[in-house]
């Protein structure tokens, strides 16, 4: 699943023969994107960038301070302040999940994804588009228990490629995919 604005084209066989990707030597993943895949990618992006995490924690600290000062100042718990405080906590906790759900709505309509990772880069095909990305697009990758997340080279990490391990077709594909990623990009 690619979370970025990229040019989409039709998938015709004339282009497939000339796109430079040898699908026989690459690792192919076939999967249906899920909201949890996007959430994993967004969490890793947040850990790499840290700006959003720091801002959210600062905002939460301000609200905790405000709530505590209102409780101490009044000598009792104010219902309105408590409800607003709980709303802020819920919003800060739920924001990445809302973002992941939004990404899912953007990519889910394209159906099943067929990603091929090879020496040429990553080619991701759906019924409606083909996206080819060379290795120079990526700054590196991070591996989780169920995913490989590739991060774009731009300073804001605006594009993520999330490759779920559940899409592997054969038993050794995850190890071969890890070897390809280690060879052409770095762990971050």
Short summary:
By secondary structure, the chain is of the alpha+beta class. Helices cover 46% and strands 21% of the residues.
Brief descriptors of the model:
about 190 residues, 4-stranded antiparallel β-sheet, alpha+beta, 5 helices
Structural write-up:
There is one protein chain. The chain is an alpha+beta fold. The protein has helices at residues 13-18, 35-49, 51-74, 79-108, 173-184; strands spanning 2-3, 27-31, 113-118, 121-125, 130-133, 138-143, 147-152, 160-164. The protein has a 4-stranded antiparallel sheet, with helices on one face. β7 (147-152) and β8 form a beta hairpin. α2 packs across α4 (79-108). The longest helix has 30 residues, at 79-108. The radius of gyration is 21 Å and the shape is elongated.
Instruction: Label the structural class.
Output: alpha+beta
Distance between the ends: 19 Å
Strand content: 15-25%
Shape: elongated
Annotation, overall tally of beta strands: 8
Gyration radius, in Å:
21 Å
Please outline the helices and strands.
Elements (H helix, E strand, L loop, with lengths): L1 E2 L9 H6 L8 E5 L3 H15 L1 H24 L4 H30 L4 E6 L2 E5 L4 E4 L4 E6 L3 E6 L7 E5 L8 H12 L4
Antiparallel strand pairs: 1-8, 2-3, 3-4, 4-5, 6-7, 7-8
Helix pairs in contact: 2-4, 3-4
